[in-house]
Design goal:
The chain is of the alpha+beta class. Helix content is about 20%, strand content about 25%.
């Protein structure tokens, strides 16, 4: 599902994706339920569903699924078996601790 509430640059989102800390084996660390990463104008949120490992490859492919599905704004939500990914614009007044505004 595409979002009409923001617009992101896919290159900024690729940079944001690269800031996600994965455990050994390029998977989301065990027990992590919610990962939120922001950089530049891109916000990526990953919500685990407890139905398997969320790997770096799967999350990256889901991000590109959002971009392909929503080519005008590149923002939206894609559910996968192990997680749901949300990509949205980081508004200037959005408080996100640990984010890197560039």
């Amino acid at each position: 599902m595409c979002s009409t509430d923001g617009k992101v640059d896919p290159n900024e989102c690729a940079n944001t994706f690269n800031k996600i800390k994965f455990s050994t084996g390029d998977a989301v660390m065990a027990g992590e339920k919610n990962i939120t990463v922001a950089s530049g104008g891109c916000l990526i949120e990953i919500i685990a569903t407890d139905s398997g490992a969320a790997t770096k490859t799967d999350i990256g492919l889901a991000m590109w699924d959002v971009f392909a599905m929503c080519p005008n704004r590149f923002t939206g939500i894609v559910p996968k078996p192990a997680f749901t990914i949300y990509i949205n614009e980081t508004k200037p007044d959005t408080p996100i601790f640990g984010s890197e505004k560039t």
